[in-house]
Amino acid sequence: MLKNWNPEEIPPKEEIKERLDKARARLYKLQMEIKEHKVPVLVLFEGWGASGKGSTIGKIIKNIDPRFFKVATMSAPTEEELRRPFLYRYMKQIPEAGKFTFLDSGWMEETTKDCLEKELSGEDYTKRIESIKRFERQLTDNGYLLLKFFMQIDHKEQTARMERLLQEKDTEWRVGGFDKWQNEHYKKCCKVFDRYLTDTNTSTSPWYIIDALDKKWAELQVLETMVSGIEVAMQNSAHSVPLLQNVFPLVKVPKLKDIELADKTIEDDEYKVELKRLQKKLGILHNRLYRKRVPVIITYEGWDAAGKGGNIKRITEALDPRGFEVHPIASPEPHEKARHYLWRFWTRLPKDGHIAIFDRTWYGRVMVERLEGFCSENDWRRAYNEMNEFEKELSDWGAVIIKFWVQIDKDTQLARFTDRQNNPEKQWKITDEDWRNREKWDLYEVAVNEMLQKTSTTYAPWHILESVDKKYARIKALKIVIEEIEKVLD
Amino acid sequence: MLKNWNPEEIPPKEEIKERLDKARARLYKLQMEIKEHKVPVLVLFEGWGASGKGSTIGKIIKNIDPRFFKVATMSAPTEEELRRPFLYRYMKQIPEAGKFTFLDSGWMEETTKDCLEKELSGEDYTKRIESIKRFERQLTDNGYLLLKFFMQIDHKEQTARMERLLQEKDTEWRVGGFDKWQNEHYKKCCKVFDRYLTDTNTSTSPWYIIDALDKKWAELQVLETMVSGIEVAMQNSAHSVPLLQNVFPLVKVPKLKDIELADKTIEDDEYKVELKRLQKKLGILHNRLYRKRVPVIITYEGWDAAGKGGNIKRITEALDPRGFEVHPIASPEPHEKARHYLWRFWTRLPKDGHIAIFDRTWYGRVMVERLEGFCSENDWRRAYNEMNEFEKELSDWGAVIIKFWVQIDKDTQLARFTDRQNNPEKQWKITDEDWRNREKWDLYEVAVNEMLQKTSTTYAPWHILESVDKKYARIKALKIVIEEIEKVLD
Fold first, then answer.
1. How many CB atoms lie within 10 A of CB B352?
2. R_g of chain A, CA atoms, integer Å
3. CA-to-CA separations, A123 to A130, A310, B38, B42, in angstroms, rounded
4. Which of A6, A79, A362, B211 is the most buried (most CB within 10 A)?
5. Helix axes of B432-439 and B410-422: crossing angle, nearest 10 degrees
6. How many CB atoms lie within 10 A of CB A475?
7. Which of B206, B242, B377 minimises the CB distance to A242?
8. Which string of DSSP letters, residue by residue, matches A253-294?
9. What span, in angstroms and rounded, lies between the C-alpha atoms of B307 and B301?
10. Calpha distance A148→A21 (Å, rounded)
11. Does residue B429 carry a pLDDT above 90?
12. In DSSP terms, which residues pair with B298 in a beta bridge?
């Protein structure tokens, strides 16, 4: 029996029927309100094998228009998924605003299974729980409704159900190896489940334990909890949440105005020699990375016309095209905008052993989105911590994270803009927006300084590339990339 | 050094000065907004001895109008306070809407001190943490802004400060016995503090660790965190929170319509004999309660004219007047309404060994407040759990809780109303409001049934008093009170 759970008595059949009709009708209505209020709803079903997770989901979705929901059955992670951070395959599944996703088991099953198979304990378990709590908090902080159900049946019931399933050829396959193991070690599993439920029971995404002995009663409990959860969520529009104190070790980054640019130049001859030498070295390291399965994430932010494109090119020239990808980041597409703002970056993460280069990044949240009012003040203020948490996740996974800020002064930008404007071949590179952004230089400078200061963690520090002399910046970038990769390969 | 804390580098003096001016001005303005938005702000200062809790509070309040704040220095609990539940003296201090309370150390210091003095460990510690988390969640769920600061100095700094204080006659007294002990066992304390900070760090009331080495820098950190916390709170009006699943064991209570009233009568002669016998017995038990220091809380709810007053009278007749108090509960006064709705009940709790009788109770939240719309739907739906938690606190403290629902039928009420109306001596007992409430009988019945079902816990169950025959109800009440008290005295 689970601790801290006190099942209600099962009501009479008549009452269940009556309440089911009411709850179904209510959910049917609420799906339209969800859509209107643009609330994304993630419904997680965890629980014992043979407790009826799948069949309950099957009944719930009958009340929802097929355009508004998706069901994802999360079996064991695939080879591809195992090569990404633990949360990757769950983050991929989060619904867009106004829609439902139902998960047939998720991060609880994977975690408790890892515990039971002894792969996860002590410090590692604590770390996993922290990472799960952050993930769930990031969802609810960003307006997600997260409903977590645990389907409970006792040992006797589980045994009976499994025997019934195993007797028939048609249903035999539904009892997996882990289900059998679970049934044989019910008490041990109960302890692990109990601890997990306690450790992850928070006020913003609490657990609901469902008495799954009777199928109709189980359905009713789920329906009524969903209805009540949705109704509460509907009452809140754009809720602000407390800003958390930074818990990650930071390294100092200079303010933009204190960055010396004038003497950061390189002679043409030296540039050519160095470029060749460093690119060769990087090429060799790329192979070693691949074999050692170390993922690398390189990100570029910087002023318009600072020379990001050319800089990235000098890196990629050195790499095996089968082992890297460049992601140019523009404004989000509608389907991206409808999800957690980090979703489009989570889904672009490299496999281990691969390099992903981001030309502009998640830091748009605290620059353009902040300055243009595309998100609320609470959103961007909260984002510094969310990004540190995101990068912590990547770093714990084993990724090398290299973040560049490409720096030029205002005069240099003007010269390059003018050059682009006057040169027919380069005119595509300059838009009215670039000129408008330039007018906000000072505001951007404040935002960039705050970003550099608050997100330069020891595990993902910012590197400044002085780029008035673009060649100097390219050599410096190559050197840093090589140095950071060597650190992890040694 | 505390885990999960990464102090920022102290900024240059010039910058601190500039930011201080800005933050002070901002706080000065925000106090008016706090007042307007009716947000209550509880600021808790915890931290090492000699870390400057008091002096920092002293500086912060200079920016706030004296009418809007209160400072409470929580030294060791008094004899009177020790005779009440742990949280009693903190609950007493919570601010009213639109005002600040600053606490110079609080439930963290008391708890960690108990840990260090070995009085609190294992299960008891876990229970204490749970109770603290519930307390803090109840505050934030009910619209309180709770800001928790921990003032951090290292061992060397603490030693130096204490030495300085001890050298002067004028300041010597400021170093207490526990401060000295703390300094001698710095590492051990650090461990206990660390665990407490981790265990109680939630997303709705997170900890802010203040680097208190430099006084101006400490003041700035506190000010800026306060300003940001208040600004976030201002953005939210009437926020709804998820409803939690009940975790407390419940006992079954019949629905009102299924309560048999007709045969619940008693003959006059028998009544007189029984009344005498039971009252005598209760009187004796009252003395034993007093000596054993067991607190008793008896609560009455029921229909208008059900006979609550006469029933209470038959109880109190048996008691020593120095050992009980009756609290008639009407609509809350303005100063009560301005606080957490349970505040006026917390502050009326009996000392151990005493009996408190409540004529109407906190359950008004889910009856009159629900039906008259005096609170939001989220408020009253959440209240079932809040009351179970409140009573759990009382029960863990050792209190006997006896909750009565005094039941009559609609016809009986009409007869008694009419009798009151027609009898000049009783007319004061009947008001227009009674007649209006009577019209809502059916709605009340739904609310009462839900209340009985959701708040009848094993540690604080509801007892039904069938009161068409008032004498029967009085005898039954006396018997239940005696039985419940005997259970705990045996």
1. 19
2. 26
3. 11, 43, 44, 35
4. A362
5. 160
6. 21
7. B206
8. ---GGG---TT----HHHHHHHHHHHHHHHHHHHHHHHHHT-
9. 10
10. 23
11. no
12. B357, B402
H-run or E-run covering B282: helix B268-292
Collapse the DSSP code of A250 into the 3-class scheme (helix H, G, I; strand E, B; otherwise coil) and give the result. strand
Interchain CB distance below 8 Å, B242 and A137 = no
B-chain residues near A127 (CB < 8 A): none
Reference B127, options B175, B199, B185, B74; nearest CA is B199
Q: Taking the C-alpha atoms of A361, A366, A368 and A374 in order, what is their torsion angle to the nearest 10 degrees?
A: 110
Taking a C-beta distance cutoff of 8 angstroms, is the pair A46, A247 a contact? Answer: no
Distance CA B316, CA A282 (A): 89
**DSSP character for A401?**
E
CB burial of A107-146 (b: ≥16 within 10 Å; e: otherwise) equals bbbbbbbbbbeeebeeeebeebbebbebbbbbbbbbbbbb
As a whole number, mean pLDDT of residues A294-298 equals 97
Cα–Cα distance, B3 to B24 (Å, whole number): 30
Residue B237 has pLDDT above 80, yes or no: no
CA distance B398 to B489: 11
**The pair of three-digit structure tokens given for residue B235, joined into one six-digit string:** 């953005």
Q: Which amino acid is at B32?
A: M
Q: Which of A383, A389, A360, A366 is nearest to A449 (CA)?
A: A366
- Which chain A residues contact residue B232 at CB under 8 A? 240-243, 378
Residue B75, amino acid: S
**How far is B359 from B163, CA to CA, in rounded Å?**
56
B242, A232: Cβ pair inside 8 Å? Answer: yes
Query: Which residue from B282, B329, B335 is spatially nearest to B309, judged by alpha carbons?
Result: B329
Beta-strand pair A400-407/B462-466:
unpaired
| Chain A environment of B383 (Cβ under 8 Å) | none
A115 contacts A56 by C-beta, under 8 angstroms: no
Q: Which residues in chain A have their CB less than 8 angstroms from residue B389's CB?
A: none
Q: Compute chain B's Rg from CA coordinates.
A: 26
> pLDDT tens digits for B162-191?
999 999 888 888 888 889 999 999 999 999
Element (H, E) at A475: helix A470-489
Position B238 scores a pLDDT of: 78
The Cα–Cα gap between A256 and A363 comes to: 16
Instruction: Give the C-alpha separation, B181 to B162, whole Å.
Output: 12
Check if the beta carbon of residue B196 is closer than 8 Å to that of residue B112.
yes
Q: How far apart are alpha carbons B380 and B366 in whole angstroms?
A: 5
Nearest to B453 by CA among A126, A6, A441: A6
**Average pLDDT over every residue of A149-174:** 92
Tell the burial category of B424 from Cβ atoms under 10 Å away from its Cβ (0-12, 13-18, 19+).
exposed
Distance from CA of A236 to the nearest CA of B (A): 6
The verdict on a CB contact (< 8 Å) between A228 and B245 is no
Question: Which amino acid would we find at residue B432?
Answer: D
Q: What tokens does A135 get?
A: 């993930």
Structure-token match 């940001």, residue found: B228
The interaxial angle of helices A122-141 and A377-397, nearest 10 deg, is 150
Q: Is the pLDDT of residue A435 over 90?
A: yes
Q: Nearest-CA distance from B307 to chain A in Å?
A: 32
Mean pLDDT of A394-414: 97
Count H helices, E strands: chain B? 21, 10
